[in-house]
Amino acid sequence: MAGLFPHIYDTAMKPLEKMRFEKIRAGLVRKAQGKVLEIGFGTGANFRYYQNVERVDAIEPNPAMGHQAVKRIKKLRIPMYLYQAKAEQLPFVDNSFDSVVATLVFCTIPDPELALQEIRRVSKPGAKFLLFEHVKMDQKMMGKTQEALTPIWKKLCDGCHLNRDTLGLVKQSGWDIQKVTSHYDGLFLTIECQNPRVF
Question: How far apart are CA 103 and CA 86, in angstroms?
Fold first, then answer.
């Protein structure tokens, strides 16, 4: 199923994107500035929303997703560079980026704690970190349902964890959280953070 997932991703996501995701993505991504790192660019759904940036370096570990994204780059006016790489092992030097964007990707990263450390390493002091993620819900019944469904969901959806507490992980990783906005009764969150100027 993992091999099929990149080819059906855009089709599966289209109703959600049209319903509200497009607006959420656009509002978040447009806050990125300067030199930008995108984590897990997937099929390139965020590419068209970048505006006041110098360049975007975007990573994605799944080569099939990367092939889908290449078509979207041709329509861009900003410099965009794609890398097949994992968030846990970023191919960039320390203090490289002014902004980092991650949308609907932390659910699939095998070691999110290590990924968050790496993202801080390559971010400049004061850099923005902008996330849009689905998370484990606070409601007890919904949280238990997410726990129960996660094993089969991971197999069907390229390693996606329905029960990941991404907000908690970001808090523990040392990022200064500036703003959290809940969507769909807390199933999705936008999280805006800043890299502390002193480690």
Answer: 15
SS (H, E, C) the chain: CCCCHHHHHHHHHHHHHHHHHHHHHHHHHCCCCEEEEEECCCCCCCHHHCCCEEEEEEECCCHHHHHHHHHHHCCCCCCEEEECCCCCCCCCCCCCEEEEEEECCCCCCCCHHHHHHHHHHHEEEEEEEEEEEECCCCCHHHHHHHHHHHHHHHHHCCCCCCCCCHHHHHHHCCCEEEEEEEECCCCEEEEEEECCCCC
Alpha-carbon span 88 to 17, nearest angstrom: 28
Please choose, from the candidates 67, 121, 63, 57, the residue with its C-alpha nearest in 3D space to the C-alpha of residue 89.
121
Reported as a single tens digit per residue, the pLDDT across 14-48 is 555 455 789 999 999 999 999 999 999 998 999 99
Higher pLDDT, 143 or 123: 123
Say how far apart CA 110 and CA 87 lie, in whole Å. 9
Token pair belonging to 174: 């040392």
Predicted TM-score (pTM) of the model is 0.81
Record the tokens describing residue 198, joined without a space: 């002193």
Q: In whole angstroms, give the CA distance from residue 157 to residue 146.
A: 14
Q: Over the stretch 44-70, which tens digit does the pLDDT of each residue have?
A: 999 999 998 999 999 999 888 777 788
Mind listing the domains of the chain with CATH numbers? 5-194 (3.40.50.150)
